[in-house]
């Protein structure tokens, strides 16, 4: 489950509270929302943890304190664990040595604090029995027209490698660029080069720190409002051209069906020219091992059709507006869910042979409710929705 889908941090729902709620629901894996990690790293809660000299949660099976070690300080231990202190070994130019985080330039202290926070969260997840599936999303990383912009994007990608190691995940989710031409290009060969370069740097980082044999992986997702690639087919073309073992595809039910079945600008919410059946029929052409993650979410129709956008009055794409407020958990038909998610998952699991995690990713206005039961309520809805969807997909096998 995507951690934001258990409640918005801006509404007071902390990452640690959400992780505990997700674990209590019976779910066993999470996608860490970058914004949640940012908020936790800067929170009074984490400052108290640091003040108490805690490197890991007290209920973690690997619980330890900075004062327990004479060889490392509280600031250096998480950095060493994440491989940050050895990162420069795989870098060759002065520009690559600049300090970045997920959003742009930052201070060394800010990055060190984020690494320490990630290590704390990684150990908390371990203590709760939660696998960290990935860190996501990293936005607008590919296809920049200027070399300077692309170099900055590459630096943002590299900055995630020690964070991923600290969290205990090997997967970084990058979504298709939302910045339009002429600042970016949608040329698949160019984007493939960018993805391949990121993958090679991820592999080099893994080999440099030598913590395990798994290279870090890059998962690429086509957003339904992407500036150039807004379908899974477009994203897959780039992944296939990248031709790297550690670059793969994200298949997202909302972003697929929200582009090829639905349209929030139409009166009934359904596209006038749906292509979803043809799209799902092509999913089995993707090798199962190249599907790195499947994300699941349904949606309800907007109360009134949206104006096509971006436009002069609204810079946000209409599908982005719809996505941010109207997604639902699987099976919530009584709440208005109308996307063919069962058919989507049948194509992915039964026909394409995907055997990886099913992760729920939902954005909805209800996540901004400040009530204390929001995390547990939404985590339980996710668990119920996944169980419902699993049963429905299983039924399609017996009907075939």
From TrEMBL:
Keyword entries, A-Z: Isomerase
UniProt feature, compositional bias: Low complexity: 61-78
Name of the protein in its database record: Xylose isomerase-like protein
Domain Xylose isomerase-like TIM barrel residues, every copy: 117-389
One term of GO molecular function: isomerase activity
Stored SUPFAM superfamilies: Xylose isomerase-like
InterPro entries tied to this protein: IolE/XylAMocC-like, Xyl_isomerase-like_sf, Xyl_isomerase-like_TIM-brl
Stretches for region Disordered: 50-92
